[in-house]
Design a protein that fits this description.
- One of its GO terms (molecular function) is oxidoreductase activity.
- It is an enzyme of class 1 (oxidoreductase).
- Pfam families: adh_short.
- Belongs to the short-chain dehydrogenases/reductases (SDR) family.
- The structure is a single chain.
- The protein is about 55% helix and about 10% strand.
- The chain is an alpha/beta fold.
- Strands 3-2-1-4-5-6-7 form a 7-stranded parallel beta sheet, sandwiched between helices.
- Helix 2 links the parallel strand 2 and strand 3.
- The protein has one domain: Rossmann fold (3-Layer(aba) Sandwich).
Length: about 250
């Protein structure tokens, strides 16, 4: 990672800040993005990076300018944890879709022409285990994280032979403000095995070194993902038990 230009969205705290710190420790030049300008500047100042505050959907050009050159690694990390079900207003569904999926699409649209011309580039998508499984009590989050995973998978199968490397990070609970906001659902499903954001960054670095698409900071998710595919009725019954516990 030394002397590479890296962008991390949603990096004012949590997983994003941990990724930014780890890339900087590896010798990369890091552009720190966050909607909160003060948070972006604080992390950038800490790691010797550059702050690129604003909406993650539209920062590629500004990040290139701030870094003074082409982007080598783009971490689409910004996300929103919208809960609820079909009753959630359309505006909230649209926000979840825009942040969790379309921001990735827009970034790729801007990045791919230069990456394909250069024959190299790396796209990192912070998805969540919810993108492989689901999350009780959070339909917009679950649906859009499935979309984020599907887009990362599509990018990988379409461009890997042209030098574009793609990684999908799919952790379960991570000790961040987003986990704290999940309430009873998070306590039931995520808190017991929750890890620190730094463990996610460590898992990503190991995955990059091995050139692995699927990054599982919680290795047990692989078994859950396999069980979901192999025995969907059993898996759904198990998840429904968690849903019933949530309703008690």
């Amino acid at each position: 990672m030394r002397d590479t230009n890296v962008v991390v969205t949603g990096a004012g705290g949590g997983i994003g800040a941990a990724l930014a710190r780890r890339f900087a420790a590896e010798g990369a030049r890091v552009a720190v993005n966050d909607l909160d300008k003060a948070k972006a500047e604080a992390v950038a100042g800490e790691i010797g990076g550059v702050a690129v505050p604003g909406d993650a959907s539209d920062i590629v050009a500004a990040a290139r300018e701030a870094l003074g050159g082409p982007i080598d690694v783009y971490c689409a990390n910004a996300g929103t944890g919208t809960g609820g079900g079909p009753e959630v207003p359309d505006a909230d569904w649209e926000s979840a879709w825009d942040v969790n999926v379309m921001a990735h699409v827009r970034a790729a649209r801007e990045l791919l022409p230069q990456w394909l011309e250069r024959g190299r580039g790396r796209f990192v998508s912070t998805v969540s285990a919810a993108g492989l499984l689901t999350m009780v009590g959070a339909a917009p989050y679950s649906v859009t994280k499935h979309g984020a995973f599907a887009f990362a998978e599509w990018l990988s199968l379409t461009y890997r032979h042209r030098g574009v490397h793609v990684h999908a990070i799919c952790p379960q609970g991570v000790r961040t403000d987003m986990l704290a906001a999940t309430g009873k659902a998070g306590a039931l499903v995520l808190e017991q095995t929750a890890i620190e954001p730094e463990a996610v960054a460590e898992a990503l670095m190991a995955g990059i070194a091995a050139d692995r698409f699927l990054i599982l900071p919680h290795p047990e998710v692989a078994g859950m993902y396999a069980a979901r595919a192999a025995e969907p009725e059993r898996w759904l019954r198990g998840m429904n038990r968690i849903q019933r516990a949530l309703e008690e």
